[in-house]
Amino acid sequence: MDLPTLWFWIVAFLFVGYFVLDGFDFGVGMSLPFLGKDDTDRRVLINTIGPVWDLNETWVIVAGAALFAAFPEWYATLFSGFYLALLLILLALIVRGVSFEYRHQRPESQWKGRFDLMIVIGSAVPALLWGVAFANIVQGVPLDADHNYTGTLFDLLNPYALLGGLTTLLLFFTHGVVFVSLKTEGELRERARRLAVRSGIVSIVVAASFLLWTGLAFGTLWFWILAAVAAVALIGGWLANLRGAEGIAFTLMAATIAAAVFALFAALFPDVMPASNDPANSLTIENASSTTYTLTFMSWVALIFLPLILAYQGWTYWVFRKRVSRATIEAATH
């Protein structure tokens, strides 16, 4: 495997990590109106991700930095052409982060209600738009000879891309609700499990439609293999949740998202940004990558620091592995 190909899959791995980890964060945020019957419930939900949500978000920063360094042409085309969509994602992430920090600063229910709404919006917008963005990357967008995007924001909102956005929205929502059932106790845990059963059915139908569309239009052998893994894991996760095995359900939901994202990269390979108007204008692994020296240096850095980052994040989750209950939240207020 040459260095550009290696770094293509490293970038894929970083986006997989982001979607798996921040995906359940988004799902928990979107679940507030469905599971939060009162302020204590909502505080329990927020506290399930309180120690880790900002750590999970750093994966997108690392993915963006790796993309910039390894594939500067891809980065330039993506971030200039998808500027408005990515700006909306950034603003939503800012709103969401601010809301986590500010909702508890005043006791008024109206104050908390506004920030709860901002958490829901700040979680749903990225969950939708990331799917829209990646679907457009796989499908291809109009590029000129200098690899500049020549379409508009509304060109990105086509039926295939919107189906991709709905797929990520539903998968992240179900992933988050399963995480709530894994991290809570009592009635809230049961309500989360029942909600995951219902949302899981819809997720299976929508995700199957998107993967089938992708496979028929852009599929490769590796895409079909990974899509099959994603489908089996999603159905297995739904069945495990139905039986109350939250740990297995959460693991299989993570595997679903990971396999689905890898499948999209497999459908994209060896292109990184296909040109829908003229294949000659497409960006590929070869014409979008950095020099061999740059990629070699990056490989040594990744070899040293990536295991340390994974170990640190694993240790963080181990430290905060206990369930959150209404009793612990109510006791903390006294």
TrEMBL record:
Subcellular locations according to the entry: Cell membrane
Iron in keyword set: yes
Residues passing through the membrane, by range: 6-32, 74-95, 115-139, 159-183, 195-215, 221-240, 247-269, 297-320
Main location: membrane
Keywords: Cell membrane, Electron transport, Heme, Iron, Membrane, Metal-binding, Transmembrane, Transmembrane helix, Transport
InterPro entries: Cyt-d_oxidase_su2
Pfam families membership: Cyt_bd_oxida_II (PF02322)
Membrane topology of the entry: Multi-pass membrane protein
Cross-referenced NCBIfam families: cydB
Family, per entry: Belongs to the cytochrome ubiquinol oxidase subunit 2 family.
This protein's name: Cytochrome d ubiquinol oxidase subunit II
Organism whose genome encodes this protein: Agromyces lapidis
